[in-house]
Amino acid sequence: MTNEQYIKAIENRHSRRAYKQKHLSQEIKDVIKQMVDAVNEEAGLDLLFIDDATPFFSIFSGKFSMIVVAGDDSQKVRENCGYFGESIVLQCVYHGLGTCWVSGTYNENKVYEAIKLPSEKRVYAVITIGYPKDRYSLVEKTMYKATHKKCKSYQDMIEVCDEKLPEAYAYGLSLVEKGPSAVNRRPVKFRYENGEFSGYVDEPYSDKSVDFGIAKLHFVIGAMAKGVNGKWSFENVFEPVDGQRLKFEPKMDEEEKSNE
Ligand SMILES: Cc1cc2nc3c(=O)[nH]c(=O)nc-3n(C[C@H](O)[C@H](O)[C@H](O)COP(=O)(O)O)c2cc1C
């Protein structure tokens, strides 16, 4: 998918919890399984596709599948789960499917029983995928109201900013604002100081790092659209200022550089 297509998916994505009474076609399931295999290979995760996810849910409706988002017990793996899981979400959304990240409202014990994960690994969330209902259900409207009473703008997520944000970073953050996060808490704190952009979450050894991974991907997509082809470091280069602050390392497009 192109970067532009990812942006379209970000614009169109909303968590969907009501699906049609029709299972995904075999062709779509096969494509999702291929994406899962590719992510596991690239990022060393333990994502697993489950054909019929309905037995693990009580408040979601219709027929849907899910990806179990699992891996080793580390901060980096939590972030990668968010980053790579969201890349699959956006590809599904672009092709008209409905998705929802879920870490609370499903039967986690039943999932552990079903998948027999090695004891050193953990399930961080699941992602439901199905054909979304044309209209939002009452449950969806109620959940939306509950989670969107107060929404942090991206400006609210910036902790320090000692000069005007470059356009690429401001746009990246505007796409972070559109991303999913558990109970819509948008927990990532960003700083732009001395020309360096960084981000962190207060409790990196929690599922807030999954939210951070999702935010990282949205930021990278936004920055890239404005000519900054950067990546997030995994090393905390700011110790001992705070625990786990990670830096965004920009790399300008050749074309942009020659225009400077
Ligand atoms: C890690 C994570 C966990 C989530 N857990 C749940 C959940 O347990 N149940 C649920 O209905 N939605 C869950 N959500 C969806 C959020 O509520 C949703 O992303 C947020 O309210 C923003 O709404 P939007 O996704 O429609 O933009 C989760 C999202 C993330 C990223």
UniProtKB/TrEMBL annotation:
SUPFAM superfamilies: FMN-dependent nitroreductase-like. The keyword Oxidoreductase applies. Pfam families: TM1586_NiRdase (PF14512). Keywords: Oxidoreductase. InterPro entries: Nitroreductase-like, TM1586_NiRdase. The keyword Oxidoreductase applies. One of its GO terms (molecular function) is oxidoreductase activity. Residues 7-223 form the Putative nitroreductase TM1586 domain. It comes from the Bacteria. Belongs to the nitroreductase family. PANTHER family: NAD(P)H NITROREDUCTASE YDGI-RELATED (PTHR43673), NADH DEHYDROGENASE_NAD(P)H NITROREDUCTASE XCC3605-RELATED (PTHR43673:SF10). This is Putative TM nitroreductase. It comes from Eubacterium coprostanoligenes.
